[in-house]
């Protein structure tokens, strides 16, 4: 199945898609919003989604009749948050729905989950950039990430393990940055959270 997002004012991504197969193999493709890195080059990353999230995604797709229906809220005065599309395709079934905002709790949960994955991938991209070009800015970025973890704004944090380990083990970095990376790693490595090795662009 596939989740797509498109909005020229979207941040951190102007557009992206996440495709997930039933075996957990997934692919992210996105166009970042130009920010402090001034980089809007297309970005892609292949990864394996955790079993729990994979099961949740396909369970919710089934509950939503594989997106055969209109899930847009059609409410007045709803803020524009970008066009979102949920698609399902198999040899026997296919469905697609597009919405800005949905009141359906299952659509909301899928949106939250995919948005969280996109946010995690963005932080992986930015941490790699700052580790290479702006080591002094790592502390602020890691604090932002810790805040997102606390508010459940990110998903599939195991994708960040290689980068966080590199930061935690680098004696040339500020100790406060290394401590933040270690705290994040401890949270990721709790029982039930499996690390996945991403293959990035």
Oligomer: single chain
- Our measurement of the CA-to-CA distance between the termini, rounded to an integer number of angstroms, reads 22 Å
Give average pLDDT, whole number. Answer: 92
What share of the residues lie within helices? 25-40%
Please provide the ordered H/E string of secondary-structure elements.
EEEEHEEHHHHE
Shape: globular
| Category from helices, strands and their pairing | alpha+beta
Strand content: 15-25%
Number of distinct beta strands: 7
- Could you name the ranges where pLDDT drops below 50 across 5 or more consecutive residues? 191-201
Number of domains: 1
Q: Looking across the biggest beta sheet, what order are the strands in?
A: 6-5-1-2-3-4-7
C-alpha Rg, in Å? Answer: 18 Å
Q: Please tally the helical runs, counting DSSP H or I stretches of 4 or more residues.
A: 5
Q: Please describe the biggest sheet, giving its number of strands, its sense, and whether it closes into a barrel.
A: 7 strands, antiparallel
Q: How is the topology of this model organized?
A:
Layout: E1 2-6, E2 13-20, E3 25-32, E4 43-48, H1 51-63, E5 83-89, E6 94-99, H2 105-133, H3 138-150, H4 161-168, H5 175-188, E7 199-200
Antiparallel strand pairs: 1-2, 1-5, 2-3, 3-4, 4-7, 5-6
3D architecture notes:
This protein is α+β, with helices and mostly antiparallel strands. The protein has one domain. It is 38% helix and 21% strand. It is built from 5 helices and 7 strands, in the order ββββαββααααβ. It has a 7-stranded antiparallel sheet, covered by helices on one side. Helix 2 packs antiparallel against helix 3.
């Amino acid at each position: 199945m596939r989740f797509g997002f498109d909005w020229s004012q979207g941040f951190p991504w102007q557009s992206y898609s996440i495709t997930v197969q039933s075996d957990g193999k997934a692919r992210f493709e996105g166009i970042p919003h130009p920010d402090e890195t001034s980089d809007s080059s297309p970005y892609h990353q292949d990864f394996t989604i955790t079993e729990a999230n994979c099961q949740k995604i396909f369970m919710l797709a089934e509950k939503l009749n594989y997106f055969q229906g209109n899930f847009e809220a059609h409410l007045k005065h709803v803020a524009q948050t970008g066009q979102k599309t949920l698609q399902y395709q198999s040899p026997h079934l296919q469905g697609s729905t597009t919405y800005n905002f949905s009141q359906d709790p299952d659509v909301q949960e899928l949106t939250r989950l995919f948005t969280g994955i996109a946010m995690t991938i963005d932080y992986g991209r930015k941490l790699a950039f700052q580790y290479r070009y702006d080591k002094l800015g790592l502390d602020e970025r890691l604090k932002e990430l810790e805040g997102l973890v606390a508010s459940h704004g990110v998903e599939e944090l195991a994708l960040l393990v290689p980068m966080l380990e590199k930061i935690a083990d680098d004696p040339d970095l500020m100790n406060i940055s290394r401590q933040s990376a270690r705290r994040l790693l401890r949270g990721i490595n709790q029982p039930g959270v499996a690390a996945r090795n991403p293959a990035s662009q």
